[in-house]
Design brief:
Blueprint: H1 10-14, E1 18-19, E2 22-26, E3 42-46, H2 51-62, E4 66-71, H3 74-86, E5 90-95, H4 101-115, E6 120-123, E7 134-137, E8 140-143, H5 146-174, E9 179-184, H6 196-216, E10 221-228, H7 234-237, H8 241-249, H9 259-271, E11 279-282
Parallel strand pairs: 3-4, 3-6, 4-5, 6-9, 9-10, 10-11
Antiparallel strand pairs: 1-2, 7-8
Helix pairs in contact: 2-3, 2-9, 4-5, 5-6
Bound molecules: nicotinamide-adenine-dinucleotide (NAD).
């Protein structure tokens, strides 16, 4: 078990090393070659009940992955599982709160025992609780309550830490040839008005992708982040047309993105064996 020093399987130790034909050189590619095929790989997608998470689950399933769809909402998950099956792949529902350590530990143990392995996680579950740091009006100063700050940090930052930690521990234990951790960041990682909590978390998860790229490469685990701009999800669809138009006019491409655009960036990180630690901004050029 993973207590202190991990016990590595032979495949992890043997996957890298010196080239036997040319001992002065290290292998320039891993056992899997230049690209990773997600077919039959077990990939966890958090927040898969709707929106971007569903789009990512669908894309991975359409490439033949076995997708562990994670969310708090059971009914939404059932729909996503059907979407995965309709896309030609496989999906299975797992209820878990990514902000709770016990839930996350159980989740990854269940995924491995029920789906027979683990090759990656997409840390997509996220919430917003927008508000100003402080606001002065009519001589009154109001402050962002700690609870409001903490709620977003718990899900969007601690949740990503917990899922990545459990995923990495399990993948090392299982001796995966190639594992992948993707964090969904946001355009807001640059610092967004009214989003102290959200911007801090989204900047944090992009930085963590970089930290983990350095720490986990020795175990053949790659990482990456995707920072979406404004994407066509329920929240955007519910906006008044004028507000939506204002949003669109600020985007250089003059249109909002679709969940498939974000899913394509996620898939790129999985498939490209020389990608690790970087964040792909997928935002139509908006800054
Ligand atoms: N939609 C956008 O335009 C946009 C832009 C930038 C970044 N993002 C990021 O992309 C991700 C998905 O966004 P979305 O628009 O699809 O959101 P959404 O609200 O439509 O879906 C989020 C899903 O996460 C689930 N979830 C929330 N808290 C959870 C928890 N504690 N444990 C497990 N599941 C939980 C929800 O039930 C929901 O199904 C988020 O991380 C968000 O910050 C979205």
């Amino acid at each position: 078990m993973i207590q202190g020093q991990p016990r590595l399987s032979e495949s992890v130790i043997g996957a890298r090393g010196r080239d036997s034909h040319n001992p002065g050189r290290f292998h320039t590619q891993q056992t899997t070659g230049f690209s990773m095929d997600v077919k039959d790989k077990v990939i966890v997608v958090t927040g898969a009940g709707r929106g971007l998470g569903r789009g990512i689950a669908k894309m991975l399933a359409s490439k033949g992955a076995k997708v562990a769809c994670v969310d708090l909402n059971e009914a939404d998950l059932a729909e996503t599982v059907q979407v995965c099956k309709d896309a030609g792949g496989d999906g299975q529902a797992f209820i878990a709160n990514v902000a709770k350590e016990d839930d996350v530990e159980k989740l990854f143990a269940d995924v491995v025992s029920e789906l027979g392995g683990l090759h990656g996680v997409v840390n997509n579950a996220g919430i917003t609780r927008d508000g100003l740091l402080v606001k002065a009006k009519d001589g009154q100063i109001t402050k962002m309550p700690l609870q409001q700050w903490q709620a977003v940090i718990d899900v969007n930052l601690t949740g990503v830490f917990l899922c990545a930690r459990e995923a990495a521990a399990k993948m090392i234990e299982l001796g995966v040839d190639e594992g992948v951790i993707v964090n969904i960041s946001s355009l807001a990682r640059q610092g967004s008005f009214g989003q102290s909590n959200y911007s801090a978390a989204k900047s944090g998860v992009a930085a963590l992708a970089e930290v983990w790229a350095k720490e986990l490469a020795r175990y053949n685990i790659r990482t990456g982040a995707v920072a979406p701009g404004t994407i066509n999800t329920d929240m955007i669809a519910a906006m008044k047309p004028e507000a939506r138009d204002r949003l669109v006019s600020a985007v250089p491409l003059k249109r909002i993105g679709e969940p498939e655009h974000i899913a394509m960036s996620v898939l790129f990180i999985f498939e490209n064996s020389y990608f690790t630690g970087r964040c792909i901004d997928t935002d139509g050029g908006l800054r």
